[in-house]
Amino acid sequence: REHWIASIPGDGIGIEVIEQAHRVLKQLEKLSKTFKLHIDTFNWSSNDYLKTGEYIPADGLKTLKKYDAILFGAVGSPDVPDHISLWGLILPIRKMFNQYVNLRPIRVLPGLSSPLKHIDAQDLDWVIVRENSEGEYAGQGGTTHDDTPYTIANEVAVFTRQGIERTIRFAFDTASSRPRKHLTLVTKSNAQRHGLVLWDKIFYEVAAEYPDVKTDKMLVDAMTVRMVLKPSTLDTIVATNLHGDILSDLAAALSGSIGVAPSSNLNPTREFPSMFEPIHGSAPDIAGLGVANPVGTFWSVAEMLKWLGEQEAGEKLMKGIEKVTESGFKTKDIGGNADMVTVTEALLRELENS
Ligand code: NAI
Ligand code: MG
């Protein structure tokens, strides 16, 4: 089997962690003998943007379309406004390739602990299914009377039946495949009375088709409290683009650090490539120091391999990651003192010996 992977390191620590991910992928390829990987790197970055005025060259998306998967680091620079960098690089890929589900598994890896002492490792084992193509990040709206005291900015959230239903269906399939078969819907349908009322309605329509899945429903504000105080009552969670974004950062922090959490931007129909990335950003505060936690990227690579049908390699990698965290090879953000390369090399050895 052969897989073609487009790798986009981006900016800051994205560049560093993706370099380590390539080492891990090469090692897995060498050890497996059943698959071959072709990794092409696209150095599209904020530096490019500052020079040329664009992140993705004119034919860039057409080029990406031919790949089986995209591995992404992070984008963002202190020299470019964040809404320009996000809309310049990552959002066009998500939208063009109809990656309408953002899947974020969260659990406390062996050797790690939640920063909240009352949370035991086994209390926290969640999957967040975030709608990834519309909602509050639809990019609709505009600004009038700009630079006057009367400025009005409209940020229009767009919710469609098709967009909501396909994400909710994916969430039910996910919940149904897990032992607890439990799905929590997060909205804010008391205050947001159009789009989120539609979410509630469609959720219960689809629920009727999944009698084996237990459901409940939370308002997003109360959900933050439940995640912190009663994490063991949750399993699979489905939420809008904005709510899912915020809740998954909280979830990652509760599980140890934002540096360990992976995400998959999925095109479930497989018409287009899906994209795999750690949930963290470019972290300009630690960029270039070699201390970034590579685990979120490695976990994303494991998810990518599974999506590509390389179940065995994905599981081998995940076991390797867990061995490494368990044996204390940890970066500073999760309470250790190892640097990024030391963690990577511990993983390479672990894979070699497993
Ligand atoms: P961030 O995730 O880059 O950093 C937040 C904090 O967590 C920082 O203190 C950072 O040092 C730490 N951190 C993040 N990842 C880490 C890792 N792997 N190991 C150790 N520590 C880690 O978020 P922030 O600071 O809000 O954004 C920085 C830039 O990244 C901005 O330009 C933002 O727009 C961009 N960003 C890009 C994302 C993407 O490419 N998908 C996602 C989030 C932010
Ligand atoms: Mg985020």
From TrEMBL:
Its cofactor is Mg(2+); Mn(2+). Residues 4-347 form the Isopropylmalate dehydrogenase-like domain. InterPro entries: ICDH/IPMDH, IsoCit/isopropylmalate_DH_CS, IsoPropMal-DH-like_dom, TTC_DH. Its EC number is 1.1.1.83. Pfam families: Iso_dh. PROSITE patterns: IDH_IMDH. It catalyses: (R)-malate + NAD(+) = pyruvate + CO2 + NADH. PANTHER family: D-MALATE DEHYDROGENASE [DECARBOXYLATING]. This is D-malate dehydrogenase (decarboxylating). It comes from Aaosphaeria arxii CBS 175.79. The lineage of its organism: Eukaryota, Fungi, Dikarya, Ascomycota, Pezizomycotina.
